[in-house]
Amino acid sequence: MTYKFVDVKRNGRITVVTLNRPEVMNALHTDAHFELHDVFDAFAADPEQWVAIVTGAGDRAFSAGNDLKWQAAGGKRGWNTSGFAGLTARFDCDKPIIAAVNGVAMGGGFEIALACDLIIAAENATFALPEPRVGLAALAGGLHRLPRQIGLKRAMGMILTARHVSAREGYELGFVNEVVPKGESLKAAERWAETICQNSPMSIRASKQTINKGMNVSLEQAIAEQRDYPAVKAMAASEDYIEGPKAFSEKRPPQWKGK
Length: 259
Prior knowledge:
By secondary structure, this protein is an alpha/beta fold. The protein has helices at residues 30-45, 68-72, 108-115, 142-150, 152-161, 167-173, 185-196, 201-214, 219-225, 230-236, 239-249; strands spanning 6-11, 14-19, 51-56, 61-63, 97-101, 104-106, 118-122, 126-128, 165-166, 178-180. The strands form 2 sheets. A 6-stranded mixed β-sheet has the order 1-2-3-5-7-10, sandwiched between helices. A 4-stranded mixed β-sheet has the order 4-6-8-9. 43% of the residues are buried.
């Protein structure tokens, strides 16, 4: 499909999704949210696509979040059931999604990155939840994800002050996986994605689902219930489950089918 506010490219098993409103630092409005909902629905449903990368057009911004000027001019704010950018309320996608942050990731832009499984940041990236400065709150998941990812006190320090955090500090706080030179975040994210694709996609999906479901219950309950998770059952019933040990014993690279 052709989209107006999003660019989608597929490179082998990897889908690259580029937020394409550089004139407003890739801030998003209603139409962009609905396009992204469709983009990630298609990615989740495509058995040939194993990993997605989200980035922003241009070198200034990943995303400045909600398009406040568009909203102030009378635009009606809204998004589909999958949330901001088609991601922040998408809890049923077990395929890995990587944020390649190439500049400003503010408000909803930071919430998009936090909703991804990995964050690869260029050294010029800047993160913040500045909503309190304009009388709002980060209600697209940021107020819940950030404390879970870096701990309560550190998250409170960012949220209550609305301060900006550099890529390097984000790495030290623990929400950034790697910091790379300016202009190289997408290339680095593709490297991470290619490494993930060397593994069984069935195992990767089972692992992601097990982590996410287990985070919501006690350790004892998580371990007791994990074999009943749908992605774990699918992994155990897959061709990959047989191929992996077989390839290991035959000392050859596995040929993953993803089924």
